[in-house]
Each structure stands twice: as structure tokens, then as C-alpha cells.
Specification:
Blueprint: H1 2-17, H2 39-47, H3 51-68, E1 72-77, H4 87-95, E2 101-104, H5 106-117, E3 121-123, H6 130-135, E4 138-141, E5 144-147, H7 148-162, E6 171-172, H8 174-188, H9 196-202, E7 207-209, H10 216-219, H11 222-226, E8 232-233, H12 235-247, E9 252-257, H13 260-267, H14 269-276, E10 286-291, H15 305-309, E11 321-325, H16 328-342, H17 355-366, H18 370-380
Parallel strand pairs: 1-2, 1-9, 2-7, 6-8, 9-10, 10-11
Antiparallel strand pairs: 3-5, 4-5
Length: about 375
């Protein structure tokens, strides 16, 4: 299968170099489905068709190629994917070594922890009267129901206890925040195996929360702040660590589920290295984007990966990138199952324990430039 993936991408590069305005390419098959088909065969069917089916097939093969090339893979997660149970998929990808670091929203971390503590989350309905749901103390995320007291209030108490008086009163990053959360859930929750946050803790996968203040994670710190405890988020160290991961990787790629701030946080690693630190690394080698956002509105969620090249976010505007315009709840399981079916487990990179060294390596390299040493001297004075 690995040889087939390599041959596929060599073919794709050759095809891309050929004039696309001429009548050539693979024949479109008259698709025949078989009741005994594997996920690999189904993905090959997608890849041999057109439109977003073809894009999905090519994205699955690119993900396999990223794994084969031992790229450092970042998973970005926006939207509300953990309330629908997708944290279990992320957990499995971490265990297989197919995700090395994560950038997500605070909401996805917060809601994932419900499963570890056995707090109720149910399938509901989107065709409802929300006034009645409010009266019944039910919170709705589209067609997912969460109990106000039994789930949200219970989770709030868990987080307030985790990050109360015992949480260090020093500067921290959101990766450290999530690492503490993973440790506490692993040691004290009812079902620690039901959270990708605890698995990230076990495998030293850094989990960054791109906008922690825009979530219940931060809301629960308010009670301690009012009591006099100060929280110091070191967001600058955080963005340097993220760029240092790219700097320290021979190959690097992103699998983006949705867009939003997680997408941009992962992609801005290239501009930090090249635009700000005056390097010439060139950004990510591979990016897969699953989005339902339109590109013509000018929003980041719908911005094409090719546009990212103009910012130095990606290495090549023509290769190593696939955008699938689809609902991530449909496309992500297919991509995940495809690589789980045909790729061998990789040794975990355990980046969390290496963040300090990666940071120091980037810092040392930056000040090797005499001009930066002079700049540093002037700032001190």
C-alpha cells in the first residue's frame, strides 16, 4: 500500500505538470460497488471520480503520504466535534502516532472531558422549541443535548477544582493547561480512556487552545480570580513553541477540521519564522482542509490553501494540498479509517517533552544572526 501511495503522488505531480487545458487524464470508471469492499477500495472509488468525492479520496491518500513521510502532523479542530463523540477518533489517531500535536477550541476540550467523567450527553433534535428546552434545563448544540446541571455545572466544578489553589501561580501556556487537565482526568475521572485529552497526556501530544478565553475553560477561572488568584497566560511563548515545532521538523503537515482560529494558528507558524524572524523556511509541506466555508467572503475559514502561499504559510501552491468542501462529521471518519487501515503505527514523537529544547534551538539559531544580536543589545538598553 505504501508503494501504491508513493506511485499515486508521483503520478499526480506528473499530471499537474502537463497542460491542464488539453484532453487527457484518467478515464472515469463506471462505478461498481461491492458489498465486501474495504475502506481502501471505497477511497479509491472516491479518488477516481470528480467534485468533492475526488477531493476526499485525494485527501485520504495525502494523509497516508504524510504519515509515510514521517511528517510532524498537526490536527486542528474547530466547531463542536467532541460533543458528537469524535474525540474517540482523535484518541485513536494519537495512539497510532498519526497526530503529533493539536490546536483546538476551548469548547472541544471542555466538552471532551464530559465523557471522561461520565457526564450525560445525548442525541436530541434540532427541530425543537428552545424556550421549552431552557425550561427543562437542557442545552442544545444543533441536535445534541447536554444537561445544564448534571453535565455543565458538574464539569464546571471539576475544572474549578483542577485550576484552583493548587494550580501554579506562574506563567503557563495552553499546552501546559491541557496537560494538567489530562493528568487530573487520567488520575481521578471515572472513564479516563474516554478522553483524547488524557491520551494526549499519555503520549506527550501538546494540545493548544487557540482562544482559551472564548470558552468555559476560562470562564471557570473567574471564580478564583475574584478570590485574588492571578492567571498569567504566556501567549508569546506559545506561538514561539508552535513555530519551533515547524522549525524542528524535516517534514510538517496540518489536517484541518473546519477553519477558524485553530486553522490560522497552525498556519501562522510559517510567517512567524520567515516574516518576523527573517528566516526562509517556507511554511508547511502538506495541508488538508475540510471546510464548508466559502472562499469568496474573504474569511479565514474559507480561504484557499493556495492563498496561504502568498503569506508563506505553505511550501508550494501546487503540491501537497487538498481542500474538501464537506461536513467534517462525514469526511473525517473516512480519512481516519483509511489511514488506520493501511498505515503502520508510528513511534510517538512526544513533542510535549521536547518543547523546551525546540524553543531553545530556535532562539539560538535566531541570535546566530549578528543583526539580531545587535537588535537584542539595543532592546536591553
Amino acid at each position: 500500500m505504501i508503494k501504491l501511495v508513493r506511485k499515486y503522488y508521483l503520478r499526480q505531480k506528473i499530471i499537474f505538470c502537463v497542460d491542464p487545458h488539453k484532453f487527457h487524464g484518467k478515464d472515469i470508471p463506471h462505478i461498481k460497488l461491492d458489498e465486501n469492499m474495504t475502506i481502501e477500495e471505497l477511497v479509491n472509488v472516491f479518488a477516481s471520480t470528480g467534485f468533492n468525492g475526488r477531493q476526499l479520496g485525494e485527501a485520504a491518500k495525502l494523509y497516508a503520504n504524510m504519515i509515510e513521510e514521517n511528517a510532524t502532523i498537526c490536527l486542528t479542530v474547530s466547531g463542536a466535534l467532541t460533543p458528537v463523540g469524535f474525540g474517540g477518533i482523535i484518541k485513536t489517531l494519537i495512539e497510532r502516532g498519526f497526530v503529533d500535536w493539536i490546536i483546538t477550541t476551548g469548547a472541544n476540550v471542555y466538552h471532551e472531558d464530559h465523557f471522561a467523567w461520565g457526564l450525560p450527553v445525548k442525541q436530541g433534535s434540532f427541530n425543537v422549541d428552545d424556550m421549552k428546552l431552557y425550561e427543562n434545563e437542557i442545552v442544545r448544540i444543533r441536535d445534541i443535548y447536554i444537561k445544564f446541571y448534571e453535565t455543565l455545572e458538574a464539569e464546571d466544578q471539576v475544572i474549578q477544582k483542577m485550576f484552583g489553589e493548587d494550580f501554579p501561580n506562574t506563567s503557563f501556556t495552553t499546552a501546559e493547561f491541557c496537560n494538567v487537565m489530562g493528568k487530573m482526568s487520567k488520575e481521578h475521572s471515572k472513564y479516563p480512556e474516554k478522553s483524547f485529552i488524557t491520551t494526549a497526556y499519555d503520549f506527550d501530544v501538546p494540545v493548544y487552545v487557540s482562544t482559551i478565553k472564548d470558552s468555559s475553560l476560562a470562564l471557570n477561572l473567574a471564580v478564583h480570580r475574584l478570590a485574588g488568584k492571578t492567571y498569567n497566560l504566556d501567549f508569546v511563548r506559545e506561538i514561539i513553541e508552535q513555530a519551533a515545532i515547524l522549525y524542528g521538523s524535516e517534514k510538517s503537515g496540518i489536517l484541518e477540521l473546519g477553519g477558524g482560529v485553530p486553522k490560522n494558528t497552525a498556519q501562522q507558524t510559517g510567517p512567524l519564522l520567515d516574516q518576523i524572524l527573517r528566516r526562509n523556511d517556507g511554511g508547511q509541506d502538506y495541508v488538508i482542509q475540510i471546510t464548508d466555508a466559502r472562499p469568496d467572503t474573504g474569511g479565514l475559514s474559507g480561504a484557499t490553501l493556495q492563498e496561504g502561499k502568498s503569506w508563506g504559510k505553505v511550501q508550494d501552491a501546487h503540491h501537497g494540498m487538498v481542500t474538501v468542501y464537506a461536513d467534517a462529521t462525514i469526511a473525517f471518519p473516512i480519512l481516519a479509517l483509511y489511514v488506520l487501515s493501511n498505515q503502520k503505527t508510528r513511534k510517538p514523537k512526544r513533542l510535549y517533552k521536547k518543547l523546551g529544547k525546540l524553543y531553545d534551538d530556535l532562539k539560538e539559531d535566531y541570535f546566530k544572526n549578528p543583526a539580531n544580536k545587535i537588535k537584542k543589545s539595543k532592546m536591553k538598553n
